[in-house]
Amino acid sequence: MSLLHLPPEALRQIFDEIGSSFFHEDLRRLTVCKQWFEFALPTCLKCITLSQTTLRSLMASGVTKRPSPLQNNLETLHLELRGDRLCISTSYPPEYTQESNALVATAPNEAPGNNPIKRSITALKKDLDQLAIITQQSHRLHTLRIRAWGFPYPEPFDSAEGYLPLPTMQALLLVGNLRVLVLDLSTGFLNSAGQQGNGHHICPAISALLCTLRTLHLRMRSICPDVLIPRDPNISLHLSEVVINLSLTEKLPGITSAAHSKRCGSQGGGLLQLKADLFEQAEALATQMVFPKVMRILTHSLPQFETNSLDVLSGKTMILEDGSAWDEDGKTVEEGSETESEIILDDEVSTLLDE
């Protein structure tokens, strides 16, 4: 019997086993025949990865202007953005650059439209706005992973400069059935006026998802305990894994120092206070979780750049090996070690850099 003569239910299971990656490796595999395409395309669209370039191509296709199979089939979305790509000229429609001066602030001594990076940031915002429409209409979307790199060397690795539009990022999180959220953002946010701002933060938008999430991994330049406060203090959560990585180091060549995340807004307190407050709120959150399995807060120590993982459930601290996943176990640190003093040193260094 020919494969395509099998019942549709059996064919769907077979294509699910094949997976999206099979078709992403070579899109010509979609075009065996018309009947094959009907089953192959939904499988291909279940899991997609977008960069600035592929995102631009997707939006240029007019995907949001007509009914699209993407909204009906998308289950997992990986979005990878890089600050260095903003320095490279990309072909955008004229209307993208015409609005750049209104959406991104221009320096007093800078001629309008002369900054290609700002034009690229404006264009990226418009593409992300369109992507947010897709994610909000994708009722099968259950996994969202966003990684955004900052600007490249010689730009300081811990520079506060950012290019992510905060209102748009908040809109991307308006997904009704999200189960897995991973935000790894080593760059900052822009407010609605295109300025670096501390007036608003993304933490409330993330905490609004706690009622549906199973896994939450976060690394952001600014964070606060609000991110771990469910809207309903009495609801039982199916959330089982929470990892907050406060270390902004990537151990890249030439990087001899790195920062930790700061508290949202203008409140002070330093790293140790932020870590303590997050730990306290994580403990409170665990009481609402039906089956808490992993709850970690990651930092790094100087000068070794060792990654320290504080287990909220046990109170123990582990040192992770290089390249370890955030939720992996490591070597348990004996009580009375120098780990905390090393973090204090890093906290003092960061405070001096901020002054």
Automatic annotation (TrEMBL):
Protein name (record): F-box domain-containing protein
Compositional bias ranges of the Acidic residues kind: 335-350
Region (Disordered): 327-350
Taxonomic lineage: Eukaryota, Fungi, Dikarya, Ascomycota, Pezizomycotina
Top-rank taxon, per record: Eukaryota
